[in-house]
Design a protein that fits this description.
The complex is a heterodimer. By secondary structure, chain A is mainly alpha-helical. Helices cover 73% and strands 1% of the residues of chain A. Chain A contains 13 helices and 2 strands, in the order αββαααααααααααα. A two-stranded antiparallel ribbon of chain A has the order 1-2. In chain A, a hairpin with a 2-residue loop joins strand 1 and strand 2. In chain A, helix 2 packs across helix 6, helix 4 packs across helix 6 and helix 6 packs antiparallel against helix 9. Chain B is mostly helical. Chain B has 2 domains: 48 residues; 212 residues, Orthogonal Bundle (MetI-like fold). In chain B, 77% of the residues lie in helices and 2% in strands. Chain B has a two-stranded antiparallel ribbon. The chains are: A mainly alpha, B mainly alpha. At the A-B interface, helix 1, helix 3, helix 4, helix 5 and helix 6 of A face helix 1, helix 2, helix 4, helix 5 and helix 6 of B.
Chain lengths: 279, 284
Amino acid sequence: MATRSEIYSIRGGERLLWVLLCAPALGVLAFAFLWPFASSVGTSFVREGTVSLQNYALVYRLYRQDVAFTLGVAAAGLLLTLLVGIPVCGLLRIRAFAPVEFLLKVPLFVPFVVVGHAMRIFLAPHGTLNGLLLPLGILDPDQPPSLAASWLGLALALAWKHLALAALLFLGAFRAVDETYLEASRNFGAGALRQTRDILVPMAAPSIAVACILVFASMLASFSIPLMMGRGSGPQMLMIDVYYRFGQHGDYGTASALGVVAYLLASGAALVYVRQLTR
Amino acid sequence: MSANSRAERTRPAQGARRASLAALTGKAVALAVGLFVIAGPLSSLIIWSVAERWNWPSSLPQVVGLRYWSRMLTGDFLVPLQRGVLIAVIVTVLALLFAVPLGYALARLRFPGRVIVLLAFLLPQAFPQLPVFASATREFYRFGLAGTIPGVVLIHLVGALVFAVWTMTAVFRSIPGQLEEAAMNLGASLTRTFVGISLPLAVPGVVASALLVFLYSLDEFTGTLLIGAPFITTLPVYMYTASIGYELQIASVTALVLMVPGAILLLLLERVLKAEYLAFFGQL
């Protein structure tokens, strides 16, 4: 945080000038985000012109399985991210290895849609991964497994994309841990994984918790990756439901109610941001 | 550090050599696994983009060639590319024009509602975007903005402004206040100080911010799909349409093209970019 000393005050005409200079940004945000946001919350309580909870009743009836599925996929994705991210970042903190650190950052600049498409052709029944595994003779060429359309494929794709962001946060937190603690545990013979488990993770716990909340919220709100990977049948991700309810059924009330459910599920992330702001 | 190196020195030489061999093997294994996990899915894009014939079951395509690449670079691929670049240029100019003064005000002025403004510019980051964009689509229809370039520019500006306002606030805060105070002590107004002192000092931050906003707009998918449909197609939407139509080669070529600007930026700016800029990539 910067020092608070350099705060200036302005008056009169100059004040008006700065209000005018700052107005467009606020105007755009209000028109293209704040107003639609408020309007979606409002319409979720309106059905056929009257205020009611019917939209939510419909969400409960038709989509409760999808809500559970979305939470499950996001939890699985987060777990995968942690299982890979924590040990790898711990090792990188203790023994720096630039090539692997660079690889970890690569998914950052791969757009979500591209990740979705790449994962689809990688994990599809006739995809690149199954093709690579064919010569090993471990899968049946007539009925190759389809990871792409399964919950695990979705969780893998989401974890792949979010690993980079999580790693950035983990590495930052691990690098802030004082070297002397690690040195002390090394002198007692602790290996790299032991140092990660007993020193780095406990000391970086608050930052890891923040990263988990942000990654979980982003995963359950993911739209382009599940849209690109597609699922034939079975439960869908929540954002896919919102998209089709809105686009194909034109049922704006139910789409909004689904949206409000998603806002609530992701509100942990909002709280994290607010806390960082008010600190 | 010193304790560690002392321990190393006292260790027998042979043991040290064996340990370094093990470390080298460990590094090689780590690199191989990392390459497979990270490059595996991406290499599928390269293989598919040159696969002219690929019948299952076969590990690799039977016929390989650049047919789809040459078709793309001459064909209907150029329209969404040009349109996307045009939108990204407009979004970048507007976002910076709007965000630079607001960023300065948030960094240096005390005014009522300052915290609320900061909070408002966090919301799009914190809440799921799709339901809001769906709602925005409905509102935009009323004003005839749906399916138009101004509509798509507006929806891109939401994410672009969030990023630009936050980075510009941070950039202006990082400029030492003494220079500004000196100018003001000599009688310059705040506006004059801003134009003459603060803005020139902030140019590197403005450039970095502009590059990332440009990239964001170029890669934006959700808002473009909802607001732009069916008239405005940018590359991400074009890729989506190709992919769900099982034109996997065309989708893969487009995906690779979409990755180029981000790759250049990451390679060029990795050393320069601070963690907060890098974290922004996660939003793409």
